[in-house]
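Table 4 source record.
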Amino acid sequence: TMGRIIAVANQKGGVGKTTTAVNTAAALAAMKRAVLLIDIDPQGNATTGSGLDKHALERSTLEALMGERQLVECIQRSPEAGYDVLPANADLTAAEVRLLEAPLREKRLSIALEPAVATYDYILIDCPPSVHASQTLAVLEFADFALIPVQPSPVDLWATVHIEKAINEAREVNPALKAMLVINQIEARTTLSKLVREVLSEIALPVADTAIRRRAVYRNSALEGKSVFDIGKRGAEAAAELDSLIREVI
């Protein structure tokens, strides 16, 4: 089967992009799908959030993208969550320059990841924290689906316009790209939720019915290097939320 490639992207950091990527990977793994999570964010938070030590990487996304090593040599297993990780750390910041100078920049990703597409049911890519990053655009040009967490703050909502632009730009190369906004870190107040949905209805991208609530458990589990699926009862409500989101995506 062909791996479905899901890019998790947004226009700025700190809106739960990595939390969404890690927990979506775990939700799919819990459904017994073969999943690869690719960390292309130099902060390496998806790597640490999956229980791997980003400071101790011998082989990372960088080597795989540069074609210096086979993809399979760089992949590690998330100890708890039952999915595979192509890990990243700050070396990727230097890579941005090398990747941009490299010929076939936009093909780099598809060449490096071709073996994975045949191996996994789903490939999740945690993008750098900006839709303007050349890597993010390269990922969107390569992905089947973009999952875009949006925080319910005025600044974030306004910035969603950039997302729409980036998606449209990517669709010039990749016309089949689908995209979905997901409201993230929302308080339980329903009036705000309704207001946020009204604002987002101005954007020509669908919004997931499932909104992700603001819960300490997302942050705490990430600090433990686990998904909300791997921390027992504490994570049950969050896991149900993620499960419902991933069914919408599928």
